[in-house]
């Protein structure tokens, strides 16, 4: 939700802070700020809007100082303006925060009664005031420990101190925080991506831990103020992740990368010689798995919905799915041989991480399917299946969604053969069909010019419907989500068979309706639902893999994706919908990589 950076060095830090904030903007971009220590003063500079506004301020009025913190904000408490931008500073400390302090109102009231004054509407400022208060009689580390004891809710913090100009203190509860190491320079950051341009040596704080950085030393502490050691990871260097190359924006790059990212993912999990899937060391012996529960949010949840069809079709395992923010509050009955699978591109989504924590506390086996192997969710799972999609910068998830689908599909295949739910002949056919997928994805990109024509028809529409049955229904949901989050136009995904139970009332002359209908066992039924829409004036955009002429002429546009193994059709059918959302948003001049009100990693509830 927000991005944090802290740097302590033997040289001025403001330029590196700004560069790191630019890498963190995908986490939040309502406002930005930094604070450095120079001439024994806290030099705070902030702006509403993007980091480039902050950069302009610094060009006019440079910040010196070899120690500083920076922040990009996704507003939770208080409108996105300069006063509410972070850092929040008193005369003695400056604080940046990612998370939500749930008891901030009562703490603020108590502090105001003691005569403390507040400048902002944020929850974060109570941290600033509390640390300032405790500094009267305690050293920085003690003051922070005392402050944390008073806080309810989640935080990742970076704090600098006017009278202690050589340390930064960081703390973590529920929101990710990483430490980076270099020569005569150390770093604090929301994630390794922000630190990668400065170092590849990274440690990750776990909940309840603190760190104290100076330019040539880093100490870690647990909640009992006991010093602890933390593992230092060497993180992979993702080739050309920071530039868009010839693409206009990250999202177009990430859409057109999908043929390669799926190829890379398949190469990680399939043995082209043995024609087998290389997934082993299951946390539960496959034949003993009693039930699989798939959990995620947003697009990741949609991949769980598709996977449910695959697990049901290919295995004898009872499969459930749930939205993480619902799962975490249910009165759950945990069983030893249930396998809980968490799907998360970032591996930092607060609801998904919290759902995982509940499973860990109940001693059941967990698996995470992530794009960031050093993430919190990955580090807290018994078993990790990376999707190998490379960093996904566009807030709207594209290549990560296809990566999630492919890993879930090959997992269902592997479990199926391990449990002898399918015979070897069918298994080999399914595995063989996977090899055709990257080429089929590439062919699907050729639909872009037709999609651009369709996009125009959505601009002035009151809204739109996306319909599908079977494993095309979750793709209808995903297509609607993409259109909503990129173009800000209302769109609804619905099971085609459900339209007659109410939503048909929405259909009126010219309303765009995307019908997703591969030639599978639902095809004829979906055509009937389509006729019900046509009869009421709906304007049909038909996406299929069927090359036979269609019965109905009342179809405004027909898009055909290549025909593949019907299990794989959700993967191809997604691509025209990604392109549609992209082109409608482009026609509306929306910010493609950073849609309004959103953030790439939702690390608050
Ligand atoms: C995807 O287009 C959305 N931006 C959003 O729904 C996202 O999928 C969701 O927040 C889950 O994120 P995660 O995969 O990082 O957990």
Question: How would you explain this protein's 3D organization?
Answer:
There is one protein chain. By secondary structure, the chain is an alpha/beta fold. The protein has 3 domains: 3-235, Glutamine Phosphoribosylpyrophosphate, subunit 1, domain 1; 256-435, Glucose-6-phosphate isomerase like protein, domain 1 (Rossmann fold, 3-Layer(aba) Sandwich); 445-587, Glucose-6-phosphate isomerase like protein, domain 1 (Rossmann fold, 3-Layer(aba) Sandwich), CATH 3.40.50.10490. Helix content is 34%, strand content 24%. The strands form 5 sheets. The chain has an 8-stranded antiparallel beta sheet with strand order 3-2-4-1-10-9-11-15. A 7-stranded antiparallel beta sheet has the order 5-6-7-8-12-13-14, covered by helices on one side. The protein has a 5-stranded parallel beta sheet with strand order 19-18-20-21-22, sandwiched between helices. Strand 5 (88-89) and strand 6 (93-98) form a beta hairpin. The N and C termini lie close together (10 Å). Residues 297-300, 344-346, 349, 352, 395-397, 485, 601-602 line the site of 2-deoxy-2-amino glucitol-6-phosphate (AGP).
Helix fraction bin: 25-40%
Bound compounds, please? 2-deoxy-2-amino glucitol-6-phosphate
Structural class: alpha/beta
Mean pLDDT: 93
**CATH topology (fold) name of the largest domain:** Glutamine Phosphoribosylpyrophosphate, subunit 1, domain 1
Task: Give the name of the CATH architecture of the largest domain.
Answer: 4-Layer Sandwich
């Amino acid at each position: 939700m927000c991005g944090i950076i802290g740097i302590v060095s033997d040289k001025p830090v403001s330029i590196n802070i700004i560069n790191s904030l630019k890498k963190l903007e995908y986490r939040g971009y309502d406002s930005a700020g930094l604070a450095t220590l120079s001439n024994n003063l806290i030099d705070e500079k902030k702006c509403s809007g993007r980091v480039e506004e902050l950069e302009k301020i610094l060009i006019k009025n440079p910040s010196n100082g070899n120690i500083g913190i920076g922040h990009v904000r996704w507003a939770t408490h208080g409108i996105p303006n300069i006063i509410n931008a972070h850092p929040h500073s008193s005369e003695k400390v400056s604080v940046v925060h990612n998370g939500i302090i749930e008891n901030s109102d009562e703490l603020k009231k108590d502090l105001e009664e003691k005569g403390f004054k507040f400048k902002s509407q944020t929850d974060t400022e109570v941290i600033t005031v509390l640390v300032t208060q405790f500094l009267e009689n305690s050293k920085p580390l003690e003051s922070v420990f005392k402050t944390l004891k008073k806080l309810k809710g989640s935080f990742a913090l970076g704090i600098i101190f006017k009278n202690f100009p050589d340390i930064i203190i960081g703390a973590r509860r529920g929101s990710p925080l990483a430490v980076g190491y270099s020569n005569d320079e150390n770093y604090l950051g929301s994630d390794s991506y922000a630190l990668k341009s400065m170092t590849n040596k990274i440690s990750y704080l776990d909940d309840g831990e603190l760190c104290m950085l100076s330019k040539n030393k880093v100490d870690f502490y647990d909640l009992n103020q006991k010093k602890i050691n933390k593992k230092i990871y060497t993180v992979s260097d993702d080739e050309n992740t920071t530039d868009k190359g010839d693409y206009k924006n990250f999202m177009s790059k990430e859409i057109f990368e999908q043929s390669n990212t799926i190829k890379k993912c398949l190469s990680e999990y399939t043995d082209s010689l043995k024609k087998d899937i290389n997934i082993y060391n299951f946390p539960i012996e496959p034949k003993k798995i009693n039930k699989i529960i798939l959990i995620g949010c947003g697009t990741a949840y949609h991949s769980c919905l598709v996977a449910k069809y695959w697990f049901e079709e290919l295995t004898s395992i009872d499969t459930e799915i749930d939205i993480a923010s619902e799962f975490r509050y249910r009165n759950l009955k945990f069983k030893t041989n249930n396998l809980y699978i968490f799907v998360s591109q970032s591996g930092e989504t607060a609801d998904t991480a919290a759902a995982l924590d509940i499973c860990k506390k109940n001693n059941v086996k967990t698996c995470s399917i992530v794009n960031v192997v050093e993430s919190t969710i990955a580090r807290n799972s018994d078993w990790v299946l990376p999707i190998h999609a490379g960093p996904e910068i566009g807030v709207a998830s594209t290549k990560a969604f296809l990566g999630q689908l492919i890993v879930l599909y090959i997992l269902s295949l592997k479990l199926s053969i391990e449990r002898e739910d399918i015979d070897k002949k069918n298994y080999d056919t399914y595995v063989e069909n996977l090899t055709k997928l990257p080429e089929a994805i590439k062919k699907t990109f050729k639909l872009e010019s037709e999609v651009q024509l369709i996009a125009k028809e959505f601009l002035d529409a009151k809204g739109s419907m996306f319909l599908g049955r079977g494993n095309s229904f979750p793709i209808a949901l995903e297509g609607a989500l993409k259109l909503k989050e990129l173009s800000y136009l209302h769109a609804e995904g619905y099971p085609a068979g459900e339209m007659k139970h109410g939503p048909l009332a929405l259909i009126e002359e010219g309303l765009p309706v995307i019908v997703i209908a591969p030639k599978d066992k639902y095809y004829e039924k979906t055509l009937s639902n389509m006729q019900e829409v046509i009869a009421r004036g709906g304007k049909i955009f038909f996406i299929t893999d069927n090359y036979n002429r269609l019965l109905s002429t009342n179809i405004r546009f027909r898009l055909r994706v290549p025909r593949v193994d019907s299990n794989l059709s959700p993967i191809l059918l997604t691509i025209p919908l990604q392109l549609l959302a992209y082109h409608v948003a482009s026609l509306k001049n929306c910010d493609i990589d950073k849609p309004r009100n959103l953030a790439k990693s939702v690390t608050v509830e």
